[in-house]
Amino acid sequence: MTPDVTRIRRSRSPQETEALAGELGTRLEPGDLVALIGDLGAGKTVFARGLGAGLGVTSGVKSPTFVLVREYAGRCTVLHADAYRLDGESDWEGLGIDERREDAVVIVEWADRVLEHMGRPAVTIRIEDGQSDDERQLTMTGPLSLLEGLGERNEGGLS
Ligand SMILES: Nc1ncnc2c1ncn2[C@@H]1O[C@H](COP(=O)(O)OP(=O)(O)O)[C@@H](O)[C@H]1O
Ligand SMILES: [Mg+2]
């Protein structure tokens, strides 16, 4: 197991967040779990949509808040879960994700609610508010192989 690195990126729009996530999505493999952490409206679902696009999901990723898990077919199965209402290990197990994890990329919103139950994430993304309405700070932790150079094309530009 390679040691994790942390990368911090600023996003100035939902499109920028989606593009960054899309880049990460192209690097993910079945068995990878992406933990998304951030308050309501932070941009977790926006990020998940970008991941889906990068994984070849063409149908468009929607919030799984009311169904708990949505399933998509990209270049591999994509399972998108919302842990907001989950409480404890049995709730997590009830999602039926553990059994299918090996063959799927798993995206979990509100991952901080089930961190001790869901197994080790490949990447953890924390999304926080920035200086203005449309600005977000994304703190990404994972192996360099997944995070190297991610979003750098947009960094530092004033346009
Ligand atoms: N830089 C940004 N990145 C992501 N979302 C943004 C950004 N700026 C504004 N937004 C808006 O914030 C909201 C995020 O919503 P959503 O992804 O559903 O949040 P969450 O799933 O974390 O509750 C959307 O309305 C989106 O348009
Ligand atoms: Mg959401």
Architecture overview:
The chain is an alpha/beta fold and 159 residues long. The protein has one domain (4-148): P-loop containing nucleotide triphosphate hydrolases (Rossmann fold, 3-Layer(aba) Sandwich), CATH 3.40.50.300. The protein is 22% helix and 28% strand. It contains four helices and seven strands; from the N terminus they run E-H-E-H-E-E-H-E-E-E-H. The chain has helices spanning 14-27, 44-54, 89-94, 144-147; strands at 4-11, 33-37, 69-73, 77-82, 104-109, 123-129, 136-143. Strands 1-7-6-2-5-4-3 form a seven-stranded mixed sheet. Strand 6 and strand 7 form a beta hairpin. The radius of gyration is 15 Å and the shape is globular. It starts with a strand and ends in a 12-residue tail after the last helix. The model has no long low-confidence stretch (mean pLDDT 93). Bound molecules: adenosine-5'-diphosphate (ADP) and magnesium ion (MG). The site of magnesium ion (MG) has 4 residues, from helix 2.
List the helices and strands and how they pair.
Blueprint: E1 4-11, H1 14-27, E2 33-37, H2 44-54, E3 69-73, E4 77-82, H3 89-94, E5 104-109, E6 123-129, E7 136-143, H4 144-147
Parallel strand pairs: 2-5, 2-6, 4-5
Antiparallel strand pairs: 1-7, 3-4, 6-7
This protein binds adenosine-5'-diphosphate (ADP) and magnesium ion.
Adenosine-5'-diphosphate is lined by residues 11-14, 16-17, 38, 40-46, 63, 109, 134-136.
Give a quick summary of the entry.
The protein has a single domain (4-148), classed as P-loop containing nucleotide triphosphate hydrolases (Rossmann fold), CATH 3.40.50.300. 22% of the residues lie in helices and 28% in strands. The protein is built from four helices and seven strands, in the order E-H-E-H-E-E-H-E-E-E-H.
